[in-house]
Every structure is written in structure tokens, then in C-alpha cells.
């Protein structure tokens, strides 16, 4: 299997950013609806401190990546681009390995640039978690 390059990874990430943004907006809408139901008008997004918003988004992204990688071996963006995260055995990563990969992705995003110099097109998060993002051959 061929390792995915920077452009494929970036395009898949753009799709995933859109999915996470939509989920985040939905969560805000639901919380607003709950607040409106309990307290009454006006209907507005909850006002939260910036640090809690950042922490919430970080946890949402970590959960999204970990769940997608450990259960399906791919995120929706990676599915659209025909990519899959695998271990040396060719299987999706276990939840702990997927979490480690997600943590490195989120807290060291520039590590993806290692793909440009790696012979096997591995990013830093692939090296740390011992995974690979590969082009998934279509099933016949």
C-alpha cells in the first residue's frame, strides 16, 4: 500500500474540519435550546469563557479522531479521499493507539510536514503511534 501524501491528508483534514465545526455548532444550538427551555427568552448561544471553549473543542476533536480511527480506521474526510489509518498488521489502530495519534496530531500539527521528507510518507504522529495513512485499494 502506498502512503498518503500531504495534499491528500490536507484535503481530508479540510472535510473533517467542516464535520467538527458542524457538530460544534449543533452542540451549541442544543445547549441554547436547553437554556431557552429552562430560563425562557432570548434564544442565544451560551456565553462561555474562551478557555472552556478551546478545551471543549480540543476534547471534541480528540474524541472525533480517536473514535473514527479506532472503529472505522478512517475519518469521514479520509473516507471521501480513499484513505485509511492502519497499523503494521494492516488493521485499524486500537483505541489507545488512536488516542496517542490524535494527541500528537492536535498538539503538534506541524508534524504532518514530516511527510515531505519521509521515505514512507509518514508524519510525526504516524511515527509516534506506529501507524500509517495509506491509500485504500477499492474493493472488487
TrEMBL record:
It is a multi-pass membrane protein. It comes from the Bacteria. PANTHER family: PROLINE-RICH ANTIGEN HOMOLOG-RELATED (PTHR36115). InterPro entries: Pra-immunoreactive, RDD. The chain crosses the membrane at residues 12-31, 51-72, 98-117. This is Putative RDD family membrane protein YckC. Keywords: Cell membrane, Membrane, Transmembrane, Transmembrane helix. Residues 4-129 form the RDD domain. One of its GO terms (cellular component) is plasma membrane. It is found in: Cell membrane.
